[in-house]
Amino acid sequence: xxKGWHSRGYLPHLDAPGELQALTxxxxxxxxxxxxxxxxxxxxxxxxAEAAGELKKRIARYEDAGYGECLLKVPQHAEAVxxxxxxxxxxxxxxxxxxxxxxxxxxxxxxxxxxxxGEIVRCWKxxxxxxxxxxxxxxxxxxxxxxxxxxxRDEAHLHxxxxxxxxxxxxxxxxxxxxxxxxxxxxxxSEGQQSG
Length: 196
What we know:
Blueprint: E1 4-7, E2 12-15, E3 20-26, H1 33-42, H2 48-64, H3 75-87, E4 93-100, E5 104-111, H4 117-136, E6 148-151, H5 155-171, H6 185-195
Antiparallel strand pairs: 1-2, 3-5, 3-6, 4-5
Helix pairs in contact: 3-4
């Protein structure tokens, strides 16, 4: 069930049906905990809001640099994640935008009544990990335990979130145009415009 406004140990979070949410989840080895802990120590003297913003920027830059094994750069692994995102679209949430990067995933959804954000993300991670592990002959968790969620406050915030998600592969130097990245909503939108 939905949790409404709540805390997961940091910042307030909103888990409610119909609300737009930008979510990011990443592979376990994409940003080592010791790196994040070092950044937190470095930012201890900064005001809390400033420190939180700077930490978020550092994590995003680190993710985009492509550290870790980058299991999602393997096309069949990226496709497995996309398949998991599409599976419950329309029943558990409305999938608005997404981008599967080499070591993390961005998603913009509107949850529907009955399933919390945590449960939605857990399903994506569980099923995609099973598929990826089977393809590699491995077992175990591939995903970082937590995920980052951001409640979309207004139309301007929605525009920024959509732009960030669609342009992340360009910003990371993986392609020249957002629609050239095969595992994201920008490519699907481009295909729809060409076929329509």
